[in-house]
Automatic annotation (TrEMBL):
Species per Swiss-Prot/TrEMBL record: Neobacillus rhizosphaerae
Residues in Bacterial purine repressor N-terminal domain copies: 4-72
InterPro entries recorded: PRTase-like (IPR029057), PRTase_dom (IPR000836), Pur/Pyrimidine_PRTase (IPR050118), PuR_N (IPR015265), PurR_Bsub (IPR010078), WH-like_DNA-bd_sf (IPR036388), WH_DNA-bd_sf (IPR036390)
Presence of the UniProt keyword Transcription in the record: yes
Keywords in alphabetical order: DNA-binding, Transcription, Transcription regulation
Protein name listed in UniProt: Pur operon repressor
Length: 275
C-alpha cells in the first residue's frame, strides 16, 4: 500500500511522539510506508522543523548504517511560563487550605492534562541526560512520575512505606524526616531496579527534603546513581533544606492559616533549566 505524504507525516509524527528517545531506523519508516529513504529523510526534515517551531521537541539524527532518528521532548520557555503561572493560580486558591496548614493537591494530581504537561516540562529539562529509571514514593507522586517517565521512555520505580506481599523480597532502609525529624521507613522490591541504574527522582511536594534523601540512600543499596531531582511544588521557608540541586515548577512561599492566604510563585525551572 502506497501512502500519500500527508498520511506519512501524520503517522510518522504520531509514532515518534509515542516512542521518545528511541532510535528509529530510516529503514523502519521506509518499509512501513513503502517509500524510498530519500523521501523519508525529506519527511523527517519537515517533522523536525515543525516540532522545533511549535516547541514540541526536536529530532536527533544518528548517522551510519545502524543510524536513524530520535525524538526528544523540548518545551520552550514561551510554552512553560503560562502553564506554570496557571499552576500557581490553581495552587494559590485559599480553598485548598486544610487543617494544620496542609494543601489539597489531589485534584491537580488527578487532572490528566495538568499532570501530562507538568511531566513534559520536567522531562524536557532532563531530555539529554542519561536516565534509566524514574523513582517516586507512594502515593501522590505516582501520576507525575509516570507522566515524566512516558516522555523519557523509561520505567517507573515506586518506593513504599511498608512491605507488600506482591513485591517479593525487598530492601528496607530507615531515614529521618526533614520536617518532623522522626525516623521513617521505606522499602523497595529487589526486582524493581537493576544495579548501576541512573535514576531521576520525581515527587509531588518537597518540604525539607527528608523523603528525597531517603530515596537517595535507597539508590546506594542498588549501587545506582542520582541523575536528578524534580518536584511539582517546593516549600520555600525551610530552615534546613537537605537537598541542594533540584528542579521545581512551583514554590510555596507562605501559608497563613488564620488569614486563609496562600502565596505561590514560580519555582526554579524557568531560571535554571532552559527548554
Amino acid at each position: 500500500m502506497k501512502f500519500r505524504r500527508s498520511e506519512r507525516l501524520i503517522d510518522m509524527t504520531n509514532y515518534l511522539l509515542d516512542h521518545p528517545r528511541q532510535l528509529v531506523p530510516l529503514t523502519f519508516f521506509a518499509e512501513r510506508y513503502s517509500s524510498a529513504k530519500s523521501s523519508i529523510s525529506e519527511d523527517l526534515a519537515i517533522v523536525k522543523e515543525t516540532f522545533e517551531q511549535r516547541g514540541i521537541g526536536t529530532l536527533q539524527t544518528v548517522p551510519g548504517a545502524a543510524g536513524g532518528v530520535k525524538f526528544f521532548v523540548k518545551v520552550s520557555q514561551e510554552e512553560a511560563k503560562p502553564f506554570v503561572d496557571e499552576l500557581c493560580e490553581l495552587i494559590g486558591n485559599a480553598d485548598r487550605l486544610l487543617p494544620g496548614g496542609y494543601l489539597y493537591l489531589t485534584d491537580i494530581l488527578g487532572d490528566p492534562q495538568v499532570v501530562q504537561q507538568a511531566g513534559r516540562i520536567i522531562a524536557s529539562a532532563y531530555a539529554d541526560a542519561k536516565i534509566d529509571v524514574v523513582m517516586t514514593v507512594a502515593t501522590k507522586g505516582i501520576p507525575l512520575a509516570y507522566a515524566v517517565a512516558s516522555q523519557l521512555n523509561v520505567p517507573v520505580v515506586i518506593v513504599r512505606r511498608d512491605n507488600k506481599v506482591t513485591e517479593g523480597p525487598t530492601v528496607s532502609i530507615n531515614y529521618v524526616s526533614g520536617s518532623t525529624k522522626r525516623i521513617q521507613t521505606m522499602v523497595l522490591s529487589k526486582k524493581s531496579m537493576k544495579q548501576n541504574s541512573r535514576v531521576l527522582i520525581v515527587d509531588d511536594f518537597m518540604k525539607a527534603g527528608g523523603t528525597v534523601m531517603g530515596m537517595i540512600s535507597m539508590l546506594e543499596e542498588f549501587n545506582s546513581h542520582l541523575a536528578g531531582i524534580a518536584v511539582l511544588v517546593e516549600a520555600e521557608k525551610i530552615q534546613e533544606r537537605l537537598v541542594d540541586e533540584y528542579l521545581s515548577l512551583v514554590q510555596l512561599s507562605d501559608v497563613d492559616v488564620k488569614e486563609k492566604k496562600i502565596k505561590v510563585e514560580s519555582g526554579n525551572y524557568l531560571n535554571k533549566w532552559r527548554g
